[in-house]
Description:
The protein is mainly β. It has 2 domains: about 1-155, Jelly Rolls; about 165-240, no CATH class. The chain has helices spanning about 10-15, 190-195, 225-230; strands at about 1-5, 30-35, 40-45, 50-55, 65, 70-80, 80-85, 90-95, 100, 105-110, 115-125, 130-135, 150-155, 170, 175-180, 195-205, 215, 220, 230-240. The radius of gyration is 18 Å and the shape is globular.
Amino acid sequence: MIKKIKQSILDQQYIASRPYAASPVNVDFKTVLVNKPWGNEYLMYSNPEIEIWNLSLRPQRSTSMHCHPNKRTSLLVLEGRALFSSLNESWELMPMDTMVIDQGVFHSTQCISKEGLRLLEFETPPMKHDLLRLEDRYGRAQKGYESVEGMTVDSTKVRFLDAKSRNKSENICNRKMSIRQIRKNSDISNSVIKNTALVAILSGVIRSKTGEYIYMPTNILTAEELRDADYVFKNVSVLLIGKDST
């Protein structure tokens, strides 16, 4: 399932009723593990257009009900089950289910599996401090992003993908992933699609033949859709997410 969530009138009302002053976080996130009351997260990939964060949630723990007023996000479940909630609805998510979230949408994610939950979070533009918490189980409502005191340097738990990872297959949460550049439809061959479940846009834009914007960073689509459609690619790089680790 790939579900797109748009900002509602209720989202707009809550944002308007609360003061919001983001404070930039001056940290080299490539080297740290950010500890959270619900688990932890770390930066897995970044470029000028997007960041990918790897999240681990403990059983029955939940992120705050929060929004990002100025950036779009997507959540992709890798392992475990999640209960994803907006202000209006809730959905149970299984591995490879994806939520594409418009800017300014309040949302929360709870781990509902005994083994814990692993997620990828895609954010554009890269603004970790762009955070407005509405409600929080752990007393963080109306507070900004975690301070440096809540971060630890732990190279055994942080897996950062850089330029060396391009076209190289990486095993992450028992799924093979690789970063590719796409210049034309033929770059998505049948052999690639055979082992790829989802494609996340990391940079550039994908347009229709008439010039309409179809996909941009944080958009996630099936590999078959990318292969079968007749699109125009401009400076596009993608993350290919495998069906399994084989």
